[in-house]
Every structure is written in C-alpha cells, then in structure tokens.
Amino acid sequence: MKYICPVCGFKGLTEPAYDDRGNHSYEICLCCGFQFGFDDYEMTSEDGSYLEPSESIIAYRKKWLAAGAVIFSPECYPQHQQQR
Ligand SMILES: [Zn+2]
User: Fold this and answer.
1) C-alpha 26 – ligand 1 centre gap (Å)
2) How far apart are the CA of 48 and the centre of ligand 1, in A?
3) Cβ pair 35, 16 in contact under 8 A
4) What is the distance in A from the centroid of ligand 1 to the CA of 58?
5) Per-residue confidence at 84, pLDDT binned at 50, 70, 90?
6) What is the pLDDT of residue 78?
7) Where are the domains of the chain?
8) What is the CA(20)–ligand 1 centre distance, in A?
9) What's the sign of the alpha-carbon dihedral 24, 81, 58, 60?
C-alpha cells in the first residue's frame, strides 16, 4: 500500500502523511523532500509568522515548483528508474 504525498502528488509514501487523528508520519517524501511533522511547522509567511500545516503544504509546493521541481531522492524514485 502506497500513499500519496499531499505536497507533490507522488504516490510513494509508505505511511499516510497524516493519520485520521492528525498525527504526522515524519516520513520524508522521496520526490519533493517534504518531511511531514517537520517542514509543515517550519514554513513562514512573508510577514514572518508561522503558517498552518495545511498552508505550509501549499507554500512548500509553490517553492518546490519554482525551484524546478527537483526530485529529492532520484535513486529511490521508481518512475525515474523505469525510464533508464
Ligand atoms: Zn512529495
């Protein structure tokens, strides 16, 4: 069973990013590098205040896409391996 990353949409998480009680997995997405339970508390808005986790996911995705959507861990990314 694989779970979809709510940040980038990569279907490769071994645990759900958030369970039904809102606990995070602390898993790092192999595609975008977002760590649930960490990066969602590290994002700040332009005025320096911390974003809600749901807003952080959107902010991180924008930042990741703006940086060229670099694959965080290409050697672990199955779709990348299939292209070889
Ligand atoms: Zn991701």
Assistant:
1) 13
2) 24
3) no
4) 11
5) very low
6) 63
7) 3-82
8) 19
9) positive
Number of H helices, E strands in the chain: 2, 2
Report the residue count for the chain.
84
Q: For 3-24, how does the pLDDT look when each residue is reduced to its tens digit (9 = 90+)?
A: 999 999 999 999 999 999 989 9
Which amino acid is present at 14?
Answer: T
The tokens of 25 are what?
């997995």
pLDDT digits (tens, 9 = 90+) for 27-60: 999 999 999 999 998 899 889 999 998 899 999 9
Contacts of 10 (CB under 8 A, 6+ apart): 4, 29, 30, 31, 32, 77
Q: And the tokens for 59?
A: 């902010």
Helix (H) / strand (E) containing 11: strand 11-13
Token pair listed for 26: 């602390």
With a CB cutoff of 8 Å and minimum separation 6, the contacts of 7 are: 29, 32, 34, 57, 60, 61, 64
**Distance from the CA of 52 to the center of ligand 1, in angstroms?**
18
